[in-house]
Amino acid sequence: MEILMAFVIGILFMSATYLMLSKSLLRIIVGTGLLSHGAHLLILTMGGLKRGSAPLLGEHAKNYTDPLPQALILTAIVISFGVTAFFLVLAYRAYQELGTDNVEEMKGTEPND
Amino acid sequence: MSFLHLAILSPLIYSLFMIFFKKFHRIHTGWFILPLPILLFIYFLSFLPVTSNQKMVTETFNWIPSLGINFTAKADGLSLLFALLITGIGALVVFYSIYYLDRMKEKLPSFYVYLLLFMGAMLGVVLSDNLIVMYAFWELTSFSSFLLIGYWYGREQSRYGAQKSMLITVFGGLAMLGGIILLYIMTRTFSISEIAAESHSIWGNSLFIPALLCILLGAFTKSAQFPFYIWLPDAMEAPTPVSAYLHSATMVKAGIYLVARFTPVFGDSGVWFWLVSGIGLITLTWGSIFAAKQTDLKGILAFSTVSQLGLIMSLLGVGSAALHYADLDENIYIVAVSAAIFHLINHATFKGSLFMAVGIIDHETGTRDIRKLGGLMTFMPITFTVSIIGAFSMAGIPPFNGFLSKEMFFTGMVRVTEMDLFHLETWGILFPVIAWVASVFTFVYSMILIFKTFTGNVQLEKLDRQPHEAPLGMLIPPVILVSLVVIFGLFPNLLSDSLISPAMAEILPGLLGAGEEFTVHISSWHGFTIEVFMTLGVVILGIILYRTFPKWKTLYSKIPERMSLFRLYDQLVEGAQSGSYKLTKSFMTGSIHSYLVYIFAFFIFILTATLIGKGALKVDTGNVSAIGIYEWILALFVAAGAISILFVKSRMTSIILLGAVGYTVSLFYVLFRAPDLALTQLVIETISVALFLVCFYHLPKLRKYETRIRFKLTNALISIGVGAVVTVMALSAHSNKLFDSISKYYVENTYEKAAGKNMVNVILVDFRGFDTLFEITVLAIASLGIYGMIKLRGNRRKEG
User: Fold this and answer.
1) Terminal CA-to-CA distance of chain B, rounded, Å?
2) Is 1.10.287 the CATH classification of the domain at A2-50+66-102?
3) Closest to A9 (Cβ–Cβ): which among B671, B730, B779?
4) Where are the domains of chain A?
5) Global confidence as pTM
6) Is the ipTM here above 0.90?
């Protein structure tokens, strides 16, 4: 399972990178969304998959899955949500002010040129 | 803090009082400055009885003892010689500047602050025994010289000259610092006398030659040796008192001092001999040839300074060979060292007077161009007398002191042919020949300097002012200097026991037994030796060359332009500027895409290199969990979703696909027994998609900006690389488990200690509650930021 997940994560990272390298602002933000999915799954996978039941003591199981990566991911999800929301509004405002969502056109001009 | 320290620092301290002197408008500020160098000169004279008995005065003032950096002031024969030059000529220059610089027109306080700064720094250089302290003063001389050259900062040429001298001397100074540090690594001390005392232990050390080269680089740049002499002619933009003081008598001799000081350390090495004497000879010849070409009086003097410094340098190089012959009685090579010191003194006297004379001509006629000058003899008889004595001494004509030191120079060079080390059996003959050729040119430019200026026809129409003799005060310092030229020429042995012999003892220690001292006897006539004929040849050929100068002058226009190092320097500076501009411009494109490409490319490169380099590439299938049908389906779904986002053209589809991937990920969380994660992911994904949709309503249609195939190909390659590296890294990390998880503790204590059953939640709010606190902060900041962005709109709209 971990090997399969490694490939899935690789594909997520690949798509995210490709999107982030594009010129459209919206595609870049979609890319960051994919990237965070990849990162979360990577944390989970590295903690080991399916080593017991869910981390709830009420289960009375012999083995539980590792709770620590889950706590870390939970924090990460919330943070990435906050950042994504901020970026989206930033993109929206940038488009309103500048009239473009092409990052190549957002370059400042050098004063000396 | 002893009195000696105070003497070194007194110019620096004294300069602080300049604000008080400024108040006396009616009195020229220079009068307030003048007593200081005179007092210092007298103070340093009081050391003469001590140093002439081969003793020295050492005073230590603790500065940074923990690093071995203490302000150790040491006055010995060599230091004292320089200290007397600095303060003596300093006093004359200050006196001269009182009449040279106008009280009303010039910014005198800054001039004298810089000059005092320089004087103190120079005294510090020659009187410090600690190398770090010496380096600090060394850089202060560069710095104050920069300020003085750029004194008339309104002029473009002044700024150019100041910058050039700064760049070159600081370059050398930094190299010297490197050499000092290398010496420290070898000897564990910064004290010059301690390093010299144990110099034999560092011979053969692998750092010996690098240290030698670094120190020499410092000396050569400061003393304007080939090819670093190029800053000196441009430093002539400084006021003439500055040129006389810094660029003929003192600062340019700091490099000479350094070479003399380090001769006991490095002198035994063949590299030292060849570099110092070879570069010295090249500088001597080159400088003398190009001096004859100049049309500006100060230009001639600048090149002649370069040339004379080369002469002294080559003598020091040849003199270092004396360290090879331990026997004092038959050591005929030490004459080179005594010649170097004698000429050092002589050069300071005649060059100082010549600069002052040129300053007078400039001051009284308004030009320094020899093509405009001529026939000034009758207008300025005293200046003419001063100049002719100075120039004849420079050319090496009896009975002036330059003649004596030139004879000794020839003696030293001729004796090189008798040496039997460093391949001198074959190459030694070049030394006297080159030296002789250079002396011929020295004669030629000295004659040009005199006769083009003072004889011939007066061209009054070309002069700004009616020429007349300078005021008395302006004439006194050069007259004093030329009197010294004559006195030292007639009674050369005045100096030999008091100054030259003690200085030699410092340059060539170890040659003397206890109680012995060098006997220097300079006589103006020593029979029909080869040196006399060489001088005779110089004079005869010099006169012929001077007479025919207009005929062969055109030769210069053919050679120099191509061989000029000035052009090379300009191109170097310009090239460095435009080159770095182009370099920066080539990768700092301002495009976020290129920066991301660099970042990802480095990510790929560094991680791949590390994984391979550390041998971490490993796939261990033993520790994996089973894959069920659901996992396969979800995996395929995520992969398909992620890839198809790349190809969709509509923004709606891409947002929905992103949502689909998110939901699938939450299904993964379900499969992997993470209920809290699944819940959060579902909710967040929903909100995110909603947000995307809200924004999407305002954003334009998803346009395909990337049209070029090369652009797409680069992106594809980089992204495939990133994906592959992440996969490989995940596999390798999974296969290289080093130790167990710490989660056992959480499992065991969630209920016992924290009274909860949901382990994830207990970790979030109890075991690791701080994470949560700041994650809440992040959300708060994000929402405030969003609020701010929407509510607080700048004034741009209104203004527009």
Assistant:
1) 68
2) yes
3) B730
4) 2-50+66-102
5) 0.83
6) yes
